[in-house]
């Protein structure tokens, strides 16, 4: 058991009859003379629902120990995505319902996967990934005082906005949390 004051982003815990949650954000609130309250935004691993939970300062939850492994993405079918452990060459099928950002899966890229008793829970995506621009309009320059952007479609089908100097065939770095262009690769 751990105190709710020890909950931080990325920690897994069990609460309410075996439901496993991961912490997305943590906030400690102290109001006047009363006791402190802890507000956490959590994601239920089984259902995928994101909810806010409130705890009083002295509450305790059961910590769940997970094992993280670096695994290389191979391919996917209608139900699962398949990953390979680079050291043992074991393959693991991860149900697509567990993958929030399926559009960022790219063959050959390694991802950190959290396991509980050899059952995959969560895939951690790198904050930035490189993709090839497959479609975009021409970069027409004009009188501008600020940065101008145009629409582009990446190799994974993601639509984003890129600067005018980016052309078809260029590699760009995309923020996987927001889907926004960050820089040319």
For the structure shown, list the relevant keywords.
185 residues; mainly beta; SH3 type barrels; OB fold (Dihydrolipoamide Acetyltransferase, E2P); 3 domains; six-stranded antiparallel beta sheet; five-stranded antiparallel beta sheet; 16 strands; 0% helix
Could you characterize what this model shows?
The strands form 3 sheets. Strands 1-6-2-3-4-5 form a 6-stranded antiparallel sheet, with no helix packed on it. 0% of the residues lie in helices and 54% in strands. The protein has 185 residues and is mainly β. The chain folds into 3 domains: 62 residues, Roll (SH3 type barrels), CATH 2.30.30; 58 residues, OB fold (Dihydrolipoamide Acetyltransferase, E2P); 57 residues, OB fold (Dihydrolipoamide Acetyltransferase, E2P) (Beta Barrel), CATH 2.40.50.140.
